[in-house]
Amino acid sequence: xxxxxxxxxxxGEEAIVVALQPPQGQQDHGLLLRLMEIGFLPGExxxxxxxxxxxGEPIAVRLGHATFALRGFEAxxxxxxxxxxxxxxx
Length: 90
Fold this sequence. Notes:
CATH architecture: Roll
Number of strands: 6
CATH topology: SH3 type barrels
Oligomer: single chain
Number of helices: 2
Helix content: 10-25%
């Protein structure tokens, strides 16, 4: 099973968060903390519900009962496995 960036998912695709990219600098560190605080943690299921046009960003992501709009570079920090490939988690 191969992890891909959340930013590569298409509208309607479901996935499970498997990892966050290591921070490259202080700004990334703060952004990764924010993503973790709002629930982008390994094992969490999500679904891409919309992409803005033109360009496809921001990306609207449903995580639990909340919806978040992520910019492309933010979504690129979240590693996911597409639901069809992801193992079942309790």
